[in-house]
């Protein structure tokens, strides 16, 4: 303000100002001071980090605690939750975790979760991405909508990874690999954006065939069960019959062995007996033979029920040797 | 207070405004262009901080951060005539603020141009390629299929029971791949957008889904494929069962016939041995053996109840006459 040559008007103005000082300024100045004092400090919570912007320029980041700043819009403080793990859900939404049981939204997020697999089938994949803000300044000033970027990238990458898998892999064995790949690729893309995001984890939740297709998938499982059952039944029948047959076979062989032993021993016995008898017979052949004949006849004839003695002079009688009787019983 | 004091207040106020007009603040993430009566003056100011200008100059703020473009899902036929819905997003940045405000003025204007350019190139690129190119990113899937087949063959070679569940249809190989497709879109669009002072950071094919009518057919195919697999499994089960039953019959016959064979052989051998033993000892006097054996036979065969008509000439009755 210029006051090189103070004309009378200016003099008056100055007088007026000094007058006003006593009245308006007397109220205004303390008010301004109080406001300034109140807004010259701020606290940063333990889960936060504060980005300080002085006259538009990034000055510093402050950790938890009490900090001072220049008031009247010179210093702007932006608090960012850097210690918290943020979560983005895909294909479902958690509604409430306060009650005993977590509730989920029943709304349909099919467009988020349905995706094409490499063999041109469709799978329904639900997943969560957990991330932390690693650089609060970049997070706030590198992109306008970092959360949206995370969601877009996550959906795109998940589809890319699932697109390189067979539907059966996606539904069964591929889960872990998919999650790891998605995390890696997401981090690559987000690091390229340089928006201060670190992906902590990607977790696959429910992975299912589309609802319409589900019964036929279940039918395959049922078929597997049936197949196993059939095989088990057949095995059971086999196990029931074959061991028994083996036992029986062993029995048959053992019996044959027994028979063989008997036969041979009998042969030896008979041979031995014959030998002994023959030795005696040789000493007196005629008389021994006669004795044996007579003894035998005695034994034999004594058993007979009916003995007919026919005179040898009678001819014409049929020479009948009968066992079991002529009369025929 | 009289007129004078009012004048003074007005002057003070005007001065204050005047002072305010001599500086501007560039916040992080912003860039500023100074215009003089609508005409841009000097360079773009893109470092944050407090800057000064002449009071009649105007500061125009332009975003420096990454901006997000979200396209409307488009229904596009692929080269192999499959109708799909393609949902793309893109990230872009204003790199030439001067060109930007000259050509599109603001972000709304840019959005309209982005819509037409990106939708157009998305349509061009997708419809110039087969569906698989937009779905798959590599041919890794063929490796997975080969690996699976190898496992199945190996396990079968070991005689293990394996379930072949995979779709036997061969997958089409890709030449370009999903990631490259989005790059093609981005490259083509970026060329056009650079004239607007815009740099396209990337294009992401966020969602690719079948059209409702195609989707239905795909589901039908998936269902029929599952049914085929279920049928195969069931028939394999039946086959497996028949195989076991066959093995049962075979093993049973084998066990039984082998046992018979062994038993008979044993018996025969024993009989032979016995015959040899008999022959050896009986050779001493065959006639005597004949006599003795006959006697034994009489004793055995002629039991009680036998009726005999005997001649008086019988040796036995020699003394009976």
List the helices and strands and how they pair.
The complex is a heterodimer of chains A (329) and B (321).
Chain A: H1 8-38, E1 41-44, E2 49-54, E3 57-62, E4 65-68, E5 75-80, E6 86-90, E7 94-96, E8 103-104, H2 110-113, E9 114-116, E10 122-133, H3 136-141, H4 146-162, H5 167-171, H6 175-193, E11 197-208, H7 214-283, H8 285-303, E12 306-310
Antiparallel strand pairs in A: 1-4, 2-3, 2-5, 6-10, 7-8, 9-10, 10-11
Chain B: H1 3-20, E1 23-26, E2 30-36, E3 39-45, E4 49-52, E5 57-63, E6 67-70, E7 74-77, E8 83-94, H2 97-103, H3 107-127, H4 131-135, H5 140-157, H6 178-193, E9 198-210, H7 212-282, H8 286-301, E10 307-311
Antiparallel strand pairs in B: 1-4, 2-3, 2-5, 6-8, 7-8, 8-9
Low-confidence stretches of chain A: 322-329
Question: How large is the radius of gyration of chain B?
Answer: 53 Å
Arithmetic mean of pLDDT of chain B:
87
Count of separate DSSP helical elements of chain B: 8
Largest interface: A-B, 130 and 123 residues
Helix content, binned percent of chain A: 40-55%
Q: What percentage of the residues of chain A does DSSP assign to strands (E)?
A: 15-25%
Query: What is the 3D form of chain A?
Result: rod-shaped
The first-to-last residue Cα distance of chain B is: 195 Å
Distance between the termini of chain A: 165 Å
- Strand coverage percent of chain B: 15-25%
* Helix residue percentage of chain B: 40-55%
Instruction: State the major sheet of chain A.
Output: 4 strands, antiparallel
Element-level helix/strand string of chain B: HEEEEEEEEHHHHHEHHE
Number of strands of chain A: 12
Pick out the low-confidence regions of chain B. none
